[in-house]
Amino acid sequence: MNTNNTTQNPNNSAKSGLTGPGRVVILGAGESGVGAAMLAQQKGFDVFVSDFGVITDKYKSILEKLAIPFESEKHTEDNILNATEIIKSPGIPSTAPIIKKLIDKGITVISEIEFAKRYTKAKTVCITGSNGKSTTSLLTYHILKNAGINVGLAGNIGQSFAAQVAKEDYDWYVLEISSFMLDDMFEFKADISVLLNITPDHLDRYDYKLENYAASKMRIIQNQTENDVFIYCADDEESLKALENIKPLAKTYPFSIVKTVDQGAYLENNTIHILTEPNNVLTMSISDLALQGKHNIYNSMASGIVAKVLELRNETIRESMGNFKNIEHRLEHVAKISGIDFINDSKATNVNSTWYALESMTSDVVLIMGGVDKGNDYNMLKDLVKSKVKAIVCLGRDNKRIHDAFEDDVEIIVNTFSADEAAQIAFHLAKRGDAVLLSPACASFDLFKNYEDRGNQFKAAVREL
Fold it and tell me: Locate the Mur ligase central domain: which residues (predicted)?
């Protein structure tokens, strides 16, 4: 990648705001797609929405109310291949037949984030990483909002960026950005970009090559200039490897828990130090952070650097980092029953996320895990499982790989096929002072609609105990 970090659209040059009559076709009618449709209609485009799956009643009603034509459970090529530009859902791979046909015709395919940014002068804090990006995005938003900044939250979290651009007038946005979104972003530029980490995830979309996935994550700094900011983890091996071949133009601020840095953030004597200029250091004991665990020290450091770059008051930053409440389904405390803590970490859909969850546990754990295995390598969990996990409750249709991975490390491994059954068995296996942790390391689609459904069913089951 060259030093200006600009990535060209391989099928066409991304347009800097289409003018005059144009036909925008949106593929995918979820939160991002319907938001993009709202904005495109507002800007005077001929809009059509097509979803190969079933469009939910919530989004159907929005499209109907706005009189935006749409189709569900099909892609009618005659209505798609005549587009001036395509806005694609992040969930649709570039290998999908309809996308291949569009690229062959030279029709530009972009993300909702790319499209929406054309129509706002708001500045952006863009946060990506394999793990922790939702928590860090929410914490950053929390700090900025508490400081009185007129800020919105969007991207891979909350309400669509495009819908907010259509309806709101924010000065700043905190955007959680996935690799799938980055793949379809070309002219977009982050004012402040944050890269938390790069660990194996979604490799099926990247020819099973970590370097391809890493290259996708590094697009977070594309188009940045010396007037922009790039924040990254100096302890993350894959991030450092990717940066060997890239010279960011932006001002860089690393964060680390193993070494000191001149500018950025570091940990010393259980105190985090955050500084963006030599004579203005924010210090805070890690015991005062709302988010506990090593991974959350990293997340808090990243958010703290953003706040310091924006010259927010140290007192405001400390207060916000101390009273923040985490995202639902991410290490969410559900209940304490008979002295046993029940924790919902259903959002942990990969091995790294489960590693982070186990690393933060301070008691013996009954671990509920399993689901759709994405080719997981469980070796990285073995030491933590040996030291902290007293039993594993499998929650999934096919649990063979979990049994194979941990049968020598844990005495009890039980199969279950519903959230109710998993919660009940885990309750019986735990004793006072233990934690029951749902942290699946797998996708949820074998037994549940999504990770939210899995987490909600688990919480309901716990409350029935």
Answer: 127-306
